[in-house]
Input
Amino acid sequence: MFKKNSMYVVLTALIIAASALTACQSAATEEAAVVEEPAMEEAAPAEEAAPAEEATLAVGIVLPTKDEPRWIQDETRFKDALTAAGYDVEILFSQGDSAKEKANVEALISKGVKVLIICPQDGTAAAAAAEEAGAAGVKVISYDRLIRETDAVDYYVTFDSIAVGANQGQYLIDNATGTGNPLYLYAGAASDNNAFLFFEGAWSVLQPKIADGTFVVKNSSEAVALQDTAELTRDEMSKIIGQVTTNWDFNTAKNLAEANLTATTAADKGVVYILAPNDGTARAIADAFGTDTDVTQFYVTGQDAEIASVQYIIDGKQSMTVFKDVRTLVKDAISAAVALLEGNEPVASGAYDNGVKEVPAIQSAVVTVDKANVQSALIDSGYYEASQFTGLE
Output
């Protein structure tokens, strides 16, 4: 009897202990729930911060190729400037392919960009991509090169392209003496509207000096046939450019220059004057003319102030370059994009006819640089560091 009562007491004690343990666990759970509630309240502000991320600059950028130093510099400056301003950006390259360019634009549209900055590989072919962006409600800024034959371009951010060619031509004139000076003409890609603008600017100052005999064109029968025509139509320019195009390609430029030198006599050489459209082609052409023993001296133009060409200028292998401060162009493009995102209209300083409309243009000035002002124009301005070059005086 005593054993049964003792067992009963033990069981009762265990039941009471178990109940107490359950009660403690329940209380602990309730207490934990109470403790976690304030943490949930503190997390709420993080959800409210989401709209700030949505306000990030919704800009997509499409550049023509990674194979030219100029566009790599542009990529870096776009990224640096937008990052410093607190915005994100996606930059894609078309690698000289208009189909890839269009696919790049479509990819950016699918990601919800509100403003597209595009430097077209082919100004006319890019019209389809611009129209697709416009149909999606995206504002289109044509950057450095004009998109042609469409009204889907809202703004054109560029350097004064006519002035670029005029500066190149004037440099040749300033270094010429007497008459009968051999002149070799080269141009950019016929698919690039800028090639026409650069050539138009150069022709505007060179043509009078060709007509009066100061220069004699040696590598374009079309230019010779039109040497008395002060203002060329686009079709007339096309005929000349078709004979002297480099397609902005180093090898094409060098091969064409070598072919021109082979086709001419020693009398067509000596001290020669060369209109090269940009720095890449200038170096290639300079290499070709520099190895021809019948060429005693040459003056060759360029543009973009690429590091390699600045070194060529210091070394006396390239005569000049037209400095286009990409920092300014990038800043102008970003400012235009921000204005459009905020519902404002960028301030234009001119307009360019793209074949369908007068596109409002935001233009930056250009500067002629040769050995005499490399230091002041490129080093003192902070564009480059002196340590990037050798032989700098």
